[in-house]
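Morning F.,

Quick status update on the modeling queue. The single chain you submitted on Monday has been processed. Sequence for confirmation:
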Amino acid sequence: MLQRAKASGAPIAIYSNEADPSEYDVGLIDSVSRNHVAYRAVSPKGDFDGERIVYVESIFRIDTGSSYLEKMRVLNENLTLAYSSPLESLADEPDPESMLREAQRQGQVVSIVDRIGYGPKGFVREVGSDYVEVERLDLNGLPDGSVVVMLDMVERIVIGGRDEQALAFLYRFQVESKRLIDG
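Structure tokens below.
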């Protein structure tokens, strides 16, 4: 399987930590020998996270072909498209309502976290005087309903961070590409 993964160039999930069986690395295989495998690890943001060399006998599970691994491939192959340079300030005053309106105008993905730690990530659909409606995106960048959050409950807003840029790119890659194909 490791040789096939190397030949295909597709990322795989490699499980080799028996102390924590749920821990894994996503990697692109560089070389495989009888005893070791060398791979470039891919971070959850899709960028490279160092070279790894693992004893083959310590690998107890390999995952291939999942939607998460496909997401990692797309992000990794399109890093410069997925992640833009830092944004300029959206507002002179740290006013959540005006910053959310500007994020809506610019089509930026936002993360909103309320006081109990819950928060959607997605596109700002509407900003009222006391609420924001967000078109939520799932972890793969696909629309997943909408959420209304009361502004007086908002603890933190993130606009244009790495997570948000990744979701925006995945949304464009999947949803807008599909629209072009469907015509």
